[in-house]
Amino acid sequence: MARNHSLDNAKFILILLVVFGHMIEPYIEENRAFKVIYLFLYSFHMPAFVLVSGMLSKAVLDEGATDRLVRTILVPFIIFTLFYESVYFLENGHLSKYIKGLQPYWVLWFFLSLFVWRLLLPVVVKFRHPVVFLIMVSLLAGYFDSIGRFMGISRTIYFFPFFVVGYLMTADVLSNLKLNKIPKVIFLAVLGLNIALFSYFHEMSEDWLLGATSYFDYDVQVWSAGLIRFALYCLSFLTVMSFLFLVPKGAGFLSRKGENSLQAYVWHPIFITVITLSGLSQNTMQLSGPLALIIFFVTAFVLSAMLSSNFVMSATQRFLISPAIHFLTILRPRK
């Protein structure tokens, strides 16, 4: 099957926004513009990433599909968990809060959630209205304080509707002639509305968009929290679709890098950590806000492009993933 260049373009842009968001995250309480941009990004970049993943998934769970899930999702999750925990231990002399609380390490929640989504997809799509069902589950789950960061359960539930929407839509929707005749200014207006809303509600907690904890962690009347989450779902869905229809369709630099976007996703935290600990980020914040944003964005672009290279992809596969898979193959009992 030929690659969908539009999706590859979207994946690189999204990983760029993820890296950029992580670079400005430490300073969102110091600068209102940073906070608005952060809220804007988090309202759609991971939902879009999850939705695109759903577009590329199949509701099949035979032996071959299960084996691929283990090799392409579970093995990388385990390897990078060990890697980041080792780095953290060498730096701090003790285990991280993630491993102590049985939580996925930082960005690695996506791999664990993706593994669960792929396992559950064949079952969920048989429901009459799977998206409505999953949104209702998510809205209700927020009222249970026990559903939180443990094993990434809350995030798995929160983002699952986006995954199923992507699966049901398929990538063909981006090529739909009628939809592509919609004036681009409408999609831009949706993005503008998003920014305007978060400019007004800039004091809201970013945790609303992370989906990692229950409503009890938010400074809001619990009874109304479900309505707020539903409103954010609506805003996120609209923004995600507007973004996808604005993404370039042709092949080029973006699509080539987008093919390896997951490599940038799993590797960028180590570089973000180094940049932060070295004081470079803090020094950048001494500059004017707009100039600091430009520097952070350019740095995020360079990092994303570098980590999405074929070299990084090949090296990761050769020195980390393949040896681990080979080891598991040896351990697997013969039939």
From TrEMBL:
Source organism: hydrothermal vent metagenome
A molecular function (GO) term: acyltransferase activity, transferring groups other than amino-acyl groups
Transmembrane segments: 12-28, 34-57, 69-90, 102-120, 127-144, 156-173, 185-202, 222-246, 266-285, 291-312
Alphabetically ordered keywords of this record: Membrane, Transmembrane, Transmembrane helix
InterPro entries xref list: Acyl_transf_3_dom, Nod_factor_acetyltransferase
Name of protein: Acyltransferase 3 domain-containing protein
Domain named Acyltransferase: residues: 4-307
